[in-house]
Amino acid sequence: MNAEEAVARLFELCRAQAGADYIGEAVSQLEHMVQAAELAQAEGADEELVLAAFCHDVGHFCAPLTEHNSMAGLGRVGHERVGAHWLRGLGFSERLAGLVASHVDAKRYLCWRDPQYLAGLSLASRQTLDWQGGPMSEAEAAAFETDPLFADSLRLRRWDEAAKVPGRPLPDLAELEALALRVRNV
């Protein structure tokens, strides 16, 4: 699959999320994705990290949700791995896929490391934390800290948690689509 086809497939799927509930939050799945990317851009993240912020939850909807992989109506168990695998299949980089794959571990790490982060989680995010293994253990945290994507994973996770502002208008996705094409072509 060439870059244009991969990006078209990604954005066709993402645009379909404009009306999809974002697992108990007051924004749609697409609003959440766009807000995460905007937060990354506002902090000066590189284009690959911006796209990872946009794509981090693609695993919730790129494959069928069933009663066996549902987190009681709060999304898909293992969505981070499903999304990373799907993005690799579209030819996106290992770094981008790795950032998508690690955003749940970053949540678990921050909940272990920072009690204020844990206390500030939305209700839905606290509920999914239980499905995701809860806060990391000290040994898990020590291992995660050695991951080359560790720092960027934490940044992405904080954008993920902040990208839940209701009522923000959705921009035209053409700029993000062009960014995705540049990232895919690298």
TrEMBL record:
Highest taxon, organism lineage: Bacteria
Enzyme class at the top of the EC tree: oxidoreductase
Pfam families noted in UniProt: HD
Keywords attached to this entry: Dioxygenase, Oxidoreductase
Domain HD: 31-108
GO molecular-function terms, A-Z: dioxygenase activity
Gene3D superfamilies: Hypothetical protein af1432
Ranges that cross the membrane: none
Species the sequence originates in: Zestomonas carbonaria
Official protein name in the record: 2-amino-1-hydroxyethylphosphonate dioxygenase (Glycine-forming)
Enzyme Commission no: 1.13.11.78
